[in-house]
Amino acid sequence: MVFGLSRRVVFRLLVVLVASGVPAVARAGDEKVQIGWLSQAVKRSLPLSYLDQPPPDEGLQGARLGIADNDTTGRFTGQSFAFTEAIVPEDGDVAEGLRDLAAKGIRLVVTDLAAPELLSAAGMPEASEITFFDAGTADDRLRGTDCRANILHLLPSRAMLADALVQYLVAKRWQELLLVVGHADGDREFAGDIRHAALKFQAHIVEEKPWTFVPGARRTDTGHFAIQAEVARFTQGISYDVLVVADEAGEFGDDLSYRTFAPRPVTGTQGLVPSAWARPHEQWGATQLQQRFLRQAGRWMTDRDYGAWMAVRAIGEAATRSKSAEPAAIVSFIRSDRFELAAYKGARLSFRSWDGQLRQPVLLADPRSLVSVSPQPGFLHQFSELDTLGVDKPETKCRMG
Amino acid sequence: MPNGLIARAVVIALLGAARIAAADTIYVSNEKDNTITVVDGAALTPVKTIPVGQRPRGILLSKDEKSLYICASDSDHIEVLDLASAKIERTLPSGPDPEYFALDPTGKLLYVANEDSNLVTVIDVGRGEVVTEIPVGVEPEGMGISPDGKYLVNTSETTNMAHVIDTAKRQVVANILVDSRPRRAVWTADGAQFWVSAEIGGTVSVIDAAKREIVKRITFAVPGVAAEAIQPVGIAITRDRKLGFVALGPANRVAVIDAQSYEVLKYLLVGQRVWSLGFNPDQSRVYTTNGVSNDISVIEVGSLKVIKSVPVGQAPWGVVSRP
User: Residue A11 — φ and ψ, nearest 5°?
Assistant: First the structure.
């Protein structure tokens, strides 16, 4: 027993020595920042529109562009950025991917994982010294009851997206909302966030209706007759200003516009959409990022690409400012109030101390034009207007321990 | 009586002379409608609109002040506008997406920031040729050349640095880390300092040109304006280095700074999303381009008051003035 304990102590000591030995090797002016990528290949359902199918390298391309941007800066600071990709197959084990990264001494890991996989990876013993940069989820629970001290979230939570949308609708005085909700967990969470936002910003949900049709074949030759009639019936007899739809997978949301009984705009997950990034966005220098990404990836940047780009850039920015390649120094800088990230949205972005969420403006766009950017003028906050979006410090359910 | 008349005549003549000295012509690039607006500086009214290339942003006068160089960003070249005929007389190669540039004091070389390709392109104006390209940080933006022409300062928006380039060696010789999204780099006339604005960082760094160190970080706070809306871009410093002017973007203010003590003296309310600043020839006025309200504001340097706004084209970007 005593012997076993001391062996464990010795083993731990060794681990500590090895871990601290890694950054010590890097000399000033020749520092290597190691960043890992952990994702799982997920088969996604085909969305209704065949126009924008999810690209297989979504997220990853954003991270790669971030590495290239960091390296350009690194040329002047004597820092370089090594990027190790661990992509776990659909039936593979995420834990194994993480162990591989950890064994290589990587302590900064950008992830595109669903909530259960992310939580299990973050809870592994190998993860104790790792900081995760979640570039793929919008789940409120990961920023609330299921928050973790070693996870930072790059993309806006569903609560932030809902607040951004409802602020705009209230600013337009389109306050009577018809809420149409899909069957997925994310849809229900987004609907809950819309209800909460309506309460907060004084909009009114006149009716909430679940969309219960089972999605069938995406294409049928005469499908539009049935859909047209169905959507008209579904929305008949309700008096509202705007339809808000919650359909993240894109199973029916695109079928609502122009088919409602009354002429009312569609917003939410389709129509006018709140998002971290949008194709039509070209303000605050965003054109440059869009162009760089297009050149590299041969396709447009998505939310997940943008999340991954921001994750890698946050690490790069902290490495430059803290003049260190050491993960602990980088993370402590990122979490400090000196950290600010410029990410083409006209504001300095930083992480909320209470739940690890990146505070940021949310774009409101339809497929071809940027309509607005929230927070809307007039929604005030004691410290930062960006904190009018999402869960603020006094109401957080996150208890990091 | 005749004495009085003479005195009056003298006064009138003097007034006339003063008016002539102040009478300038103002040129404004309109990013969104691909034009240059010509404004009469005496009447402060627009007199002409000249169609130019796609997305005109940075503009500069040639050394003889007879031509205007225009960064036509989406046309991927620089246009040379002959101001007498109001015609584009030729184009210069610039590399992709030229946004902003600097003319060396001899008037022979243009240094162009290519936002899209992490390069500074050096152009021989006379021969109309690219001389060389200098690699810099991500999204090069601001360009400021020292009064003696020996050093060029380029800012890179995503790398967050001011790169000091030795113009003889055509190499980066120093990098100074500044706050987020640096925009303009403007030298003081004595060549002792250059000031760098940081749009997202919300500051202006005053940098000692010899030591290449930040000597002061000027911060701003406008009562009733959210800190996030304070986004410094354009800078103008008087030749005597008494006053500095900084455009604060969506805060819709120009900050007036004591350029010796770096204290902010005043915030002047101008048009919406104030962007670039330019002096008139005798530096009695500062002109501001206001990108959202589609006008320019005229600041009187003596009284530190905004005396007029003049409507121009859509999304005005750059402004210069000549006698």
Answer: -60, -45
pLDDT digits (tens, 9 = 90+) for B23-74: 899 999 999 999 999 999 999 999 999 999 999 999 999 999 999 999 998 8
Over the stretch A273-324, which tens digit does the pLDDT of each residue have?
999 999 999 999 899 999 999 999 999 999 999 999 999 999 999 999 999 9
Alpha-carbon gap, residue A9 to B150, rounded angstroms: 61
Q: Which of B97, B159, B160 to mutate to test the interface with A (most CBs of A within 10 A)?
A: B159
8 A C-beta contact, residue A350 and residue A358? yes
Residue B241, classified by CB atoms within 10 Å of its CB into exposed (0-12), middle (13-18) or buried (19+), is middle
Note the ipTM here. Answer: 0.75
Chain A, window 286-325: residues with a beta carbon less than 8 angstroms from a chain B beta carbon: 288, 291-292, 313, 317, 320-321
Distances from the Cα of B290 to the Cα of A189, B313, B319, angstroms: 42, 10, 10
B200 and A292 within 8 Å at the Cβ level: the answer is: no
A342: closest CA of chain B, how far (Å) = 6
Q: Which amino acid is at B321?
A: S
Residue numbers in B near A78 (CB within 8 A): none
Instruction: Mutation target for B interface from A340, A360, A382, A388: give the one with most B CBs within 10 A.
Output: A340
The CATH homologous superfamily for domain A159-273 is Response regulator (3.40.50.2300)
- pTM, 2 dp: 0.84
Task: Centre a 10 Å sphere on the Cβ of residue B48 and count the other Cβ atoms it contains.
Answer: 13
Sequence-ordered alpha helix ranges (H) in B55-150: none
Q: String of b and e for A259-282 (b: at least 16 CB within 10 Å)? A: bbeeebbbbbbbbbbbbbbbbebe
Residues 6+ apart with CB under 8 A from B109: B103, B122, B123, B124, B125, B131, B167
In CATH, what number does A7-156+277-360 get? Answer: 3.40.50.2300
A227-249 pLDDT per residue, tens: 888 899 999 999 999 999 999 98
- The residue extents of the domains of chain A are 7-156+277-360, 159-273
